[in-house]
């Protein structure tokens, strides 16, 4: 059957016996999953690695998917993605477990993507989330997010204004965003307090 | 998401390979055909390299919807190489097993270097997606005074920088992502391109400066695996300088106090006046800011005094030992032989400066076009002013080089709006534009599918 006309759930179920159907599922969701990770981590290479690991885990576990109804394949993928993100947040490392199991080699994002990662983030969306949840943040994180995300300053500029190193500012921004993620999406307890 | 296009396509290729190699969990209906992706990629790139020699010249129809303001009523497009679809259909092995929208191939021209008005080189890469996996192949172009031609060169993947020496030789830097750790350098000796591999530990190079056939510098960094301390993770980087003496490449130690960090650009005015710039890091991975190194013919020393204001420097260009420009992001500095001075400007610097004379300095500003310094102020040429873009095209200028104030070349890539939907864009095509002292003319903006 033409993969275009099959639902996500049909593709994922079929992929247990016809692994090629999984590629069609990837085509539908890869960009969205990558965008999710870019937005959450603000790091191009980390987002790429998390995306790869998510699909590797999904591929390895495709035979265990049970179809409770429309939309369940996407939320199954998102659950895996969130779990990967949580693991990254708590350990500051991207696991390669599933990719190694499948014999997948590391993929580097082009240097351009790394340098322009911040331009790729859907800042408008982040801005709205930030505005809604700023009060619950630590003061240094709130300041970092306001400078970088709300006012759109470069990391270097924002760091100068905050009177800290660029690296510290980057850390505050990503910590703040993760904390927002915890608040907004209920991803379990905050381990950075 | 354009900058992640290669990654997404590469990951798709890996998943496709896993799918092809997977044993179906319940038996009979199998899609498993072991498909050695790497070999297919090699075949595809080899076919491309061979096919790319075929050249044709066509005239782009003038006045599509707007006549370029600075154009002469029609731009000449030189056809560089056939597009891959013919390749895909000519061989059943290259067909993707899943009916997914075919990812687009794309040309990217990343750097340009001029020795004389009839001897100019440009380099970049071509991406094709022969079986779902991305194949990146080298693109080397040459202008002989009358036409741009694609030149056969060893396949080293994407090529990011090129430099020419005074005698007609040239060195180009492979991007180096293919194998991950070994740095390939392409060398033109006047007759052919050959592939040289830097010794282990040399790191990955970002830029090259060729003085003569036996005096060439390349700069970059060696990156260590990620380390984590508390909430911080970083990849320690080490400054790397490599020198070619006519026979071998040797790694030269960076001066004390400037060993951590990376270099992004190298240039100079001769064997005893070479500059390299980048970023200096402190122990513990913290960035210490812009780094400038100078070679006086016998030793590299760190030149302090360059201002902050940018996380690192991306370009250096020298006109004389007492007139050197260095820039990065929002910072532009000029060295007068003794101290650095700030040069006001209102654009971000992410590419190589090209200094032709004290009153002719040029810079590519990505999707804003090209800017030039005439000794007193900045002149800005938007892509629209240059006649490159309109409502249905967008483009990026990656590099610019000047032979004289009346002979300047800029390179990049151009996209045209797709046919199917207003939000889709066609594949990246090579873009080469020329400044003759009074106007810009587009010389190359497409390739042939012949």
Category by helix and strand content of chain A? mainly alpha
- Average pLDDT number of chain B: 76
- Enumerate how many helices of chain A there are, as a single number: 11
Q: Just give the CATH class of chain B.
A: Mainly Beta
CATH fold type of the largest domain in chain A: Rna Polymerase Sigma Factor, Chain: A
- Class from secondary-structure proportions of chain B: mainly beta
Inertia-based shape of chain B: globular
The counted number of beta strands of chain B is: 32
User: Biggest sheet of chain B, in brief?
Assistant: 4 strands, antiparallel
* Count of all domains of chain A: 2
Describe the structure.
The complex is a heterodimer of chains A (193) and B (450). Chain A has 193 residues and is mostly helical. Chain A contains 11 helices and no strands. Chain B has a single domain (2-22, 33-444), classed as YVTN repeat-like/Quinoprotein amine dehydrogenase (Methylamine Dehydrogenase, Chain H, 7 Propeller), CATH 2.130.10. Chain B is built from 3 helices and 32 strands. In chain B, the strands form 9 sheets. Chain B has a 4-stranded antiparallel beta sheet. Chain B has a 4-stranded antiparallel beta sheet with strand order 7-8-9-10, with no helix packed on it. Chain B has a 4-stranded antiparallel beta sheet with strand order 11-12-15-16, with no helix packed on it. Mean pLDDT of chain B is 76; it is low at 24-104. The chains are: A mainly alpha (193), B mainly beta (450).
